[in-house]
């Protein structure tokens, strides 16, 4: 149970920690200076409120999961998963590419994406914890495993933050790329969910590289959390990955390329 709890904590909590690191760096690199000029106040309180609301939403989602599962011909949980993953992607991508929006609107959409991630991943973790808690007397192993898993997530996120901070000083667009890849990685599993509920047909995998990096290994889990690593992708997944990565990054680079022209026009 101890090992299983650590693995579950890494699978469900690590994506949230990674998202927090990427959002923090995106704020520092691209939005903080704009926030100062726009007199944007109390971002810390808003982040704390978002985290609290997301955790409450995860608890509520777990409590209502039995009723939700009966929706849409007993596919309610699958469609809720799809909705939360799409909300996470759309909210954060809009905050990245909506350059003409106010800083407050862009920040609010980032927080909306964070809230969706907390509900999505937090509910999975709570279901596991509550399920084992009710069926087992070995609560010490459960608590220790959860603590170890969250500790590993925190340690990795600190190292990841400082690594990316140093790299972003030399590569300004790195955080935008990594955040976009993370978001795409979170929405790619929607394809498998749609296949499971027979909404789209299953396809044969284009390739299988589990012998190189196994999805269930530690490295595979980390790569899945970072950018949705898939060892056996279908054509649907590959097309979705290329489209959902290419459009935001093309929009970002186009905006960057237009800055010198706008500066010349101003002069």
UniProtKB/TrEMBL annotation:
Keyword Glycosyltransferase: no
Record's keyword terms, sorted: Membrane, Transmembrane, Transmembrane helix
Coiled-coil blocks: none
Transmembrane portions of the chain: 6-27, 43-62, 82-102, 109-130, 142-164, 171-191, 234-254
Record's protein name: FTR1 family iron permease
Record organism: Pseudoalteromonas ulvae
